[in-house]
Amino acid sequence: MRFRLTPRETSFYDMFAASADNIVTGSKLLMEMLGADTSARAEIAERMRAAEHAGDDATHAIFHQLNSSFITPFDREDIYNLASSLDDIMDFMEEAVDLVVLYKVEELPKGIEQQIEVLARAAELTAEAMPNLRTMSNLTEYWIEVNRLENQADQIHRKLLAHLFNGKYDAIEVLKLKQIVDILEEAADAFEHVANTVETIAVKES
């Protein structure tokens, strides 16, 4: 491993950890929405929107630090990609919750709870992994498990689509629910992008 860090650079690690912790908050709000009455969903969406704004602030802080730092702990492009992918996760989760409210969804499709559980687990793993960027240690199991979870998310997504097209729902409801489960699938993909970026960083720094 190349030791080329200065005290100034350590703030990147803290900012990545804060961004990942905020994603855990978002995943918990997704879980909360799952069990909430329709009357409570608007308030959950407001809290999710606040979390998404906090995520934006964290991302902008990383970009600002990147633009003002002469020396960075690892490649600038990788810092940018990692920050952007973390931000994408939060954006997708917020969009899913917002659409549940905007579309006035009465009942979420059976199986979506499995999709959200996968996202919650990926969020926990990502938050646990970010502090390890300081030493580039104990990261291999993280990206392997997140990739496994993304494959699981793909299977769940396909089953959800099959369920939506089984004739139980009318056409408009299918369109609404499909957009929500598709966005949650994009969140799973974004978790994989984060894990792949971390793997790229670790390989370069080894």
TrEMBL record:
<dbReference type="Pfam" id="PF01865">
    <property type="entry name" value="PhoU_div"/>
</dbReference>
<protein>
    <submittedName>
        <fullName>DUF47 domain-containing protein</fullName>
    </submittedName>
</protein>
<dbReference type="InterPro" id="IPR018445">
    <property type="entry name" value="Put_Phosphate_transp_reg"/>
</dbReference>
<dbReference type="InterPro" id="IPR052912">
    <property type="entry name" value="UPF0111_domain"/>
</dbReference>
<dbReference type="InterPro" id="IPR038078">
    <property type="entry name" value="PhoU-like_sf"/>
</dbReference>
<comment type="similarity">
    <text>Belongs to the UPF0111 family.</text>
</comment>
